Amino acid sequence: MLRMPEFEVHQPTTAAEAVALKAELADALYVAGGTDLLPNLKHWLHEPRHLVSLASVSEMNGIQVRPDGSVTIGAATTLHAVATHDHVVAQLPGLAQAVGSIAGPQHRRMGTIGGNVMLDTRCLFYNQSLPWRQAVGYCLKKDGTWCHVIGSAKACVAAQSSDSVPMLAALSAQLCFVLPDGETQRIDLVDLYTKDGRFEQNHTVPEHALLTAIELPAPTEGHRSVYRKVRARGAVDFPQLSVAVAGGFLSDGTCTSLSVVIGAMLPFPKVLPGTDVAVGTSLPDEVIEALATRAAKQARPQAQIHGSPDWRRHVAGVETHRGLRDLRDRASSVV
Ligand SMILES: Cc1cc2nc3c(=O)[nH]c(=O)nc-3n(C[C@H](O)[C@H](O)[C@H](O)COP(=O)(O)OP(=O)(O)OC[C@H]3O[C@@H](n4cnc5c(N)ncnc54)[C@H](O)[C@@H]3O)c2cc1C
Ligand code: SF4
Q1: Closest Cα to atom 2, ligand 2: which residue?
Q2: 158 ligand 2 Cβ < 6 A
Q3: Which of 73, 188, 246, 275 could form a disulfide with 258 if both were Cys (CB 3.0 to 4.6 A apart)?
């Protein structure tokens, strides 16, 4: 049996109260659905003395769609509610695909979109039981000094592996935080993640910052989006690599904007540069080929996730190709 460290649970009812509690209590962590945090506690990856539960903070729950099509998703909204929301399914299909591919149905009814955005990075040498990690002498991310993946004491390259994150990045999402001093902070989602995979060093926001909402701008005219997820098992599995593509299209099929984001590769989502070559075209095969080749060249997967880095790099190109073809043909599928 895997036992958890002992902790006390606190149940604030407002975001302000939650941040104040987190800042005031020593060794406290937020818990939303607990679908990632609680397994991690069983592995003694964190040893908090207090958990500040977000389950009763009703102001952080729900999805609001404005007349112009912009959307606010409360951070404590369940993954199931996001993936099955009428507006999301009809207008932001890539987001419904990405969130609907997370874990299994039970996890999606407990797990929240905020917990997914704030998810701890993952690594084969870290997401293991305490005796397993002890046997290899721990690692730089927790209790050790050495990264077994890159063979150095300098950096942790554990992967940001949340399925919602590459798609939210492709949709230009912004994040709203409440800080301990009562101030609010709004940042682009792509600016949240650092190059350091270590817990509490992977995010750019101040310590104790509470994610309260995710803001999505009004979709571009003729919005299309597709999420491609590669995983070892067909269900209940984290991505080995993922590609989110989103773009705007005129009625004649001319592309007016394009974004490609690769996930589960580095401690941050990788935004593919140079996608503007597609603007003004109808995504002909040669443009898709060029972007897929660039994705494979720019991909830098590490051996922190199952599947060799060379194979995952190849997959980055293949899935970018498939995603762009799906986008052009308005088809959609999750691998
Ligand atoms: C078997 C299994 C399979 C899984 N498969 C996938 C998968 O395929 N894809 C995937 O993306 N995830 C997967 N997960 C992970 C997890 O289920 C999801 O990422 C889920 O969205 C986490 O949300 P949560 O509300 O449960 O977060 P929690 O576990 O409660 O919290 C996760 C982290 O976020 C922090 N946090 C939570 N909410 C906030 C907030 N509002 N502000 C600041 N910090 C916050 C917590 O302190 C914690 O560090 C899987 C988990 C399991 C157990
Ligand atoms: S990437 Fe290295 S330091 Fe980071 S969790 Fe994996 S082994 Fe540890």
Answers
A1: 147
A2: yes
A3: 275
CATH number at residue 185: 3.30.465.10
Q: Provide the residue range defining the domain that includes 71.
A: 58-118+159-216
321 and 229 in one domain?
Answer: yes
The strand pairing partners of 51, in sequence order, are: 9, 29
Q: Which residues lie closer than 8 Å to 17 by C-beta, 6 or more apart?
A: none
State if residue 42 touches ligand 1 by the CB under 6 angstroms criterion: no
d(CA 135, CA 125): 11
Instruction: Report the nearest atom of ligand 2 relative to the CA of 140.
Output: 3
Q: What is the 33 CA–ligand 1 centroid distance (Å)? A: 7
- Return per-residue pLDDT of the chain as tens, 335 residues: 899 999 999 999 999 999 999 999 989 999 999 999 999 999 999 999 999 999 999 999 999 999 999 999 999 999 999 999 999 999 999 999 999 999 999 999 999 999 999 999 999 999 999 999 999 999 999 999 999 999 999 999 999 999 999 999 999 999 999 999 999 999 999 999 999 999 989 999 999 999 999 999 999 999 999 999 999 998 899 999 999 999 999 999 999 999 999 999 999 999 999 999 999 999 999 999 999 999 999 999 999 999 999 999 999 999 999 999 999 997 434 44
Q: Do residues 198 and 180 share a domain?
A: yes
Of the listed ligands, the closest to the CA of 154 is 2
Residues 243 and 312 both lie in one domain: yes
By most ligand atoms within 8 Å of CB, the mutation choice from 128, 141, 202, 306 for ligand 2 is 141
For CA atoms 31, 27, 147, 298, the dihedral sign is: positive
